[in-house]
Write a structure and sequence with these properties.
Largest sheet: 7 strands, mixed
Strand content: 15-25%
Length: 750
């Protein structure tokens, strides 16, 4: 077990070295620990601690060396405008503002580093192996949306480059050997597009090549919600499918077959981008194949440690890669928990039933084992985890395996004779449609995924882990886990009940969701729920639907849109794909807006009533009243044509003005229709042109919530914050506190 201990120390040291804000200590700490290791070795003390200590010391020294060799050239280019030369390393990706192109770039005579090159859409014809020459401004890759992030460094990308002026392109001659497999992946994607309908093609491209660009955000969120996100991320699942398919033709007992199998595995990893999960699976698969060839058993934890060590040696910052963390923790969970559980379950069955039960129990054991170590990671990164993942894997495993194998066969047949490939694609489309259908339907279930925003669900997750630890550490022979399983089910139901009751017990609950730079506000009164706006930069449709489902709402009583800008309405299509909307209140403005037309078409298809607010309208929300004021202005500026909402429960009022500017706020205040409000959802995300002094003096709010995320507009403006502070208004910001919830009761405000 030397390698697992060494790798554990190596990985732990890199975690500290990468995440700790203090710099410059790696070299000295590494040398000091290496000296301690040498002393213990000479004294022949603590064999196992020495192995961990050696891993820690070498990791810190390697982190220092890697920085000098690889990071230094990138730092020399950072925050400079240079004339660069770049080689395209992968296919261009479309963004909202042009193209993002993975390159290896640098000055003409300088070291080249991995970078992302941002250029205009006219570069869409670039292929791997082509070269670029232009003037570009280079920035470090460790910032995403204005915040420090290891997202790109964990993938080996050290710089971002924005082109200026003319870009000179030199096309590669022939097929460059280094990029042959990447070009092959592009050809495979093109062939898939030619054989399958768009939705099926998008899924199959993700399944076979790891390209998820064709998957809609809504479908991606559904896959993650039901626990099938790993299906569209190349990992051990796909490598096992590939080995299973190849095993029909090749056996690893022969040297030639073994070499072919290993070559195919390595080529598959390179072709799909060498994702951490793929590299890990290829190393595991290679070790197993070598063990079979040599007639020896392979130790899975040794193979897993070897894969992790290879990835971290190539790029120490890969330790911060979420995909790597999920992949290795899931696999470790399968080895440590899934396999023993399967053996125990099968042993408890009569011998005559074991063979038939093994496949289903194996899937269940693998799913549960993978979740043991990854659920905390899901909660940390995404604030939720899939509760029905084991069921999803049981129900869809057959379809995913058939889609993988059938997809490859259809591509081969299509290459030989197009009609044969098209005929095969029709057959393969059946399991693909089933997977897509399941993800969509199961994603609508209230308890498909649990959100950690609810304290009750977080407490339940902690309770389950406590039960699991007791079950593992204090096993009782001969006892089946009926009582702990029942306890987990009962407490889950109790958590769901308490979560729902917490929201519904108040006369009015106002929740301003964290949707990034946008707005989405949930109003709940008893069993009635309204949503005001659904847009933003952080998956607004998924966020709103997830919140509603977490409180037991599969149907939304009323959706109100203040206006048709994407940061207030862009998430509506995904929301309506997950939650049924009974009625919709819209301003009758911006009639040429494509987003308005799309929303109206969805409402018509779903049977949603549309009410255009052209005069002051009131509607009951059980124990509250929602008043909607039409736009005051007939100007063409959309922000000046926002609906204004006042939600009232007894003497407690909440005011929402959308992106209404200060001039319109003053007109609204002068009409005398606004009450003294306890809560103000600050207009236009805290822009200096909204939340005017006149409005604040007219409504005198006790609390203000600013729905805001990273942006280039300066929101919230300091002038707005100063106006709120001067009036002693308690202010919350979703970019700092996450979602904000306030409760109001007729007898007791708060």
């Amino acid at each position: 077990m030397t390698l697992p201990l060494f790798t554990a120390g190596f990985a732990a040291a890199l975690l500290a070295g990468v995440y700790l804000p203090v710099s410059g200590w790696n070299l000295y700490a590494g040398l000091g620990l290496l000296a301690v290791w040498l002393g213990l070795t000479l004294l022949k003390r603590g064999k196992q601690p020495r192995q961990v200590l050696l891993g820690v010391a070498l990791a810190l020294l390697w982190l220092t060396a890697w920085g000098a060799v690889f990071q230094a050239p990138a730092e020399a280019l950072a925050n400079r405008t240079v004339r660069l030369q770049a080689v395209v390393e992968d296919w261009p990706e479309a963004t909202d503002y042009g193209l993002r192109i993975p390159v290896r770039a640098g000055e003409e005579d300088g070291r080249k580093v991995k970078a992302l090159f941002y250029g205009d859409a006219d570069l869409a014809g670039l292929r791997p192996g082509d070269t670029l020459s232009c003037v570009a401004y280079c920035t470090p890759a460790d910032r995403v949306r204005g915040e420090e992030s290891l997202y790109y460094p964990s993938r080996g990308i050290l710089l971002q480059m924005q082109s200026y002026g003319e870009v000179t392109v030199t096309k590669a001659e022939g097929i460059p050997p280094r990029y042959a497999l990447t070009l092959l992946a592009g050809s495979i994607r093109d062939r898939i597009d030619g054989l399958y309908p768009a939705d099926q093609a998008a899924f199959l491209k993700a399944l076979l090549t790891g390209d998820k660009s064709g998957l809609s955000d809504s479908l991606t969120h559904s896959f993650n919600r039901v626990g099938l996100g790993h299906v569209v991320v190349i990992s051990g699942l796909h490598v096992s499918f590939l080995l299973g398919l190849l095993s029909f033709f090749l056996k690893p007992k022969g040297k030639g077959s073994l070499l072919v199998l290993l070559t195919v595995l390595i080529a598959f990893s390179v072709m799909t981008g060498n994702a951490p999960g793929t590299v890990r699976a290829v190393v595991l698969g290679g070790v197993v194949l070598l063990g079979q060839y040599l007639g020896r058993d392979s130790h899975p934890m040794i193979a897993l440690s070897l894969g992790l060590l290879i990835l971290l040696t190539v790029n120490p910052y890969a330790i911060a890669n979420a995909g790597l963390q999920f992949s290795f923790l899931a696999t470790a969970g399968i080895f440590l928990f899934g396999r023993p559980w399967l053996a125990r379950w099968l042993q408890g069955l009569p011998k005559r039933h074991r063979k038939r039960a093994a496949p289903l129990l194996g899937l269940l054991a693998v799913s549960l084992g993978a979740m043991v170590l990854t659920v905390p990671l899901s909660a940390l990164y995404f604030g939720r985890f899939s509760l029905i993942a084991p069921l999803s894997n049981l129900l869809t495993s057959w379809a995913v395996s058939l889609a993988f194998a059938g997809g490859m066969v259809s591509l081969l047949l299509g290459g030989l004779f197009l009609p044969l490939g098209q005929a095969a694609a029709v057959v393969v489309g059946v399991p693909i449609r089933f997977v897509l259908w399941y993800a969509e339907k199961a994603g609508r279930l209230s308890l498909a995924a649990l959100t950690m925003d609810s304290g009750y669900f977080a407490l339940w997750a902690g309770f389950v882990y406590l039960i699991l630890c007791l079950y593992l550490l204090v096993p009782v022979k001969g006892e089946r886990p009926v009582i702990p399983v029942c306890a987990c089910v009962v407490t889950l139901c109790l958590s769901f009940f308490l979560t729902v009751q917490t929201v519904r017990r108040a006369d009015l609950t106002v929740t301003v969701l964290d949707v990034g730079q946008g707005q989405s506000v949930v109003l709940t009164s008893g069993n009635t729920t309204a949503l005001v706006d659904c847009g933003g930069t952080k998956n607004p449709g998924d966020t709103a639907a997830g919140y509603l489902q977490s409180v037991g709402k599969g149907t939304l009583d009323l959706l109100v849109l203040t206006h048709f800008h994407a940061d207030h309405a862009g998430g509506v299509p995904e929301l309506m794909g997950r939650v049924r909307v009974k009625a919709m209140a819209l301003p009758d403005v911006d009639r040429d807006s494509p987003l308005r037309r799309e929303i109206e078409a969805l409402a018509q298809a779903q049977g949603t009533e549309i009410h255009y607010i052209t005069e002051t309208t009131r509607t009951d929300l059980e124990k509250a009243v929602l008043t909607l004021h039409p736009p005051l202005s007939g100007n063409k500026e959309v922000n000046e044509q926002c609906l204004t909402l006042v939600c009232t429960s007894g003497d407690w009022d909440a005011l929402i003005t959308g992106d209404m500017p200060g001039t319109e706020e003053q007109r609204l205040a002068a009409r005398g229709v606004l009450p003294d409000a306890e809560l103000l959802v600050v207009g236009h995300h805290g822009s200096k042109t909204s939340t005017s002094q006149a409005l604040l003096e007219a409504v005198s709010p006790a609390w203000a919530v600013i729905s805001v995320g990273y942006n280039n507009y300066g929101h919230p403006a300091q002038e707005t914050l100063d106006r709120l502070s001067a009036l002693d208004i308690t202010c919350y910001r979703t970019d700092q506190t996450g979602s904000v919830t306030l409760y109001a009761n007729r007898q007791e405000d708060g």
